[in-house]
Amino acid sequence: MQSTVFNHAQMELLDMMSFVDTPEMLAQLKQAISDFFARRAEEEIDRLWETGALNEEKVEGFRNLHERTPYK
């Protein structure tokens, strides 16, 4: 049997989970984590836009992008 090694962040979250004792608290925690990652994504998009790595032309190109995983 293979054991799982948790990193520091995972251990911190597991420790915090001991305080979550209702479904409402779990929902609030999930929302807070979701909000955190949404902010991070928005910051990265803003950075890409400011550096020119992302622009209106590239965004328009996403409208017609059809990437598929080839299956045998």
Write the layout of secondary structure elements.
Elements: H1 8-17, H2 23-51, H3 56-63
Give a structural overview.
The protein has 72 residues and is mainly alpha-helical. It has three helices and no strands. The protein has helices spanning 8-17, 23-51, 56-63. The chain is extended and about 50 Å long.
Order of helices and strands: HHH
**C-alpha geometry:** extended
State the total count of DSSP E strands: 0
Strand residues, percent: under 5%
Low-confidence stretches: none
Share in helix: 55-70%
Number of helices: 3
Radius of gyration computed on alpha carbons:
19 Å
The whole-number mean of residue pLDDT values reads: 92
Largest sheet descriptor: none
